[in-house]
Amino acid sequence: MVDRADMEQRVRRHVADVIRGCSYEHIEAVDRFRKGDDHVVFKVSYTEPDGIRSAVVVRVGAVGETHDCSRAEREARILRMLDGHGAPRLLHFTCASHWLDTPTMCISYVPGDSKPFAGLDASHVEMLGRALAQVHLTDVSAIGALLGETVSASAYLAERLATAVTARLDAAKEGLPTQVVGRITDAYRYVKDLVETAPANTAEAWDGASLALLHGDPGEANVLWSPGPVLIDWEYARLGDPADEIAYTFMDNRLDRPQRDALLRGYRAFSADATSRPIEARIKTWGPVNLLGSAMWWIERYLMVRTADQAAGKKYSSRRPADQYLRGALDRLDRFEPLFNAARKR
Q1: Alpha carbon 67 to its chain's center
Q2: Which residue ranges form the domains of the chain, and what is each CATH number?
Q3: Where are the beta strands (DSSP E) in the chain?
Q4: Minimal CA–CA distance to 264: which of 89, 114, 125?
Q5: Which of 61, 60, 107 is nearest to 83 (CA)?
Q6: For the chain, how many helices (H) and strands (E)?
Q7: Which residues of 156-174 are buried (b: 16+ CB within 10 A; e: fewer)?
Q8: Hey, how many other C-beta atoms are within 10 angstroms of the C-beta on 343?
Q9: Is residue 97 within 8 Å of 72, Cβ to Cβ?
Q10: Contact 65/317 with Cβ under 8 angstroms?
């Protein structure tokens, strides 16, 4: 097992090898940012030959985890295509190196911090809306089929229900208390009916809708303000319905009505009004789908971590405790049920 000091030395050596203008002797500091579920992140500060102080961010696959390099390589190709537009610039990527044996990505350092979305004023939320529109209007022809198959928006909706919710139901029913299973079953019936009927009931919003590049997880932890929004962690990027991403942003960040209105104003300002109107109509369908899909994601992680804890007799790697995942799922079910109950009364 690599200890913290040894890991920082390895990161220092790796950066000196792959970043032009950075020598080992002129690296001043290696600071650990945070540890996610699958990687650790460092800021490496150094002085260039001309005396300019600079920094690079290094994201290293967590030691001891199972890694699929193709997933990390896919994210690197997306960052290379974006070339610093609304995202950090990719400087170097490798599946393994002399110093680090897990996928390692070097990206430009973005000076700034994440902010709680609950405290963002209208001007900042509008900037976020413009940033999302810029992502959704990105020409992805350079990376071909990397992002997935191009299908209709209604087919994409059905596919997301299948992968985000339906595929996780059996495991959830076997591993959760009966009361929770009942709540999930009721929610699934409602969402399944919504997905099957919405494209026909609001055909003008769905017919001819095009898929676009989505960031995949625009939560507050993945937005740095520098001073405008810069999206980081593109591992969940995909080809999808822009309305899916906007609805997810509303839901995951608990945006209130004035903030939602501000985000849409920013989105419209960057995209054509004729483009944004059908997207806004589809958001009403995506909201419940995303909320239940998010609950199922947290349930899946809860079951995975709990099973690993039981098998190993200890906490699963460096991940969150199992109960924290369960609380995340129950929170989303609590937020879903008022939508379901309101619809049932209509």
Answers
A1: 18
A2: 4-108 (3.30.200.20), 117-345 (3.90.1200.10)
A3: 27-35, 39-47, 53-61, 90-94, 104-108, 212-214, 223-225, 229-231, 238-240
A4: 125
A5: 107
A6: 11, 9
A7: bbbebbeebbeebeeebee
A8: 12
A9: no
A10: yes
Structure letter (DSSP) for residue 323: H
Q: Is 25 helix (H, G, I), strand (E, B) or coil?
A: helix
> 318: Cβ–Cβ under 8 A, 6 or more apart, which residues?
35, 62
Instruction: Identify the three-state secondary structure at position 256.
Output: coil
Q: List all residues 6 or more positions away from 19 whose beta carbon is below 8 Å from its beta carbon.
A: 46, 56, 91, 92, 106
Whole-angstrom Cα distance, residue 241 to residue 255? 20
Listed residue (149, 144, 14, 151) closest to 78, CA to CA? 144
Bridge partners of residue 209, in order along the sequence: none
Q: The tokens 């990397």 sit on which residue?
A: 146
pTM for the structure as a whole:
0.90
User: Which tens digit of pLDDT belongs to each residue from 62-94?
Assistant: 755 445 688 899 999 999 999 999 999 999 999
The 10s digit of each residue's pLDDT in 223-279 is 999 999 999 999 999 999 999 999 999 998 999 999 999 999 999 999 876 678 899
Kindly give, in sequence order, each residue whose CB lies less than 8 Å from that of residue 44, ignoring residues fewer than 6 positions away: 11, 12, 15, 22, 27, 29, 30, 55, 56, 57, 58
Give the angle subtended at the CA of 142 by the CAs of 139 and 148, to the nearest 5°: 80
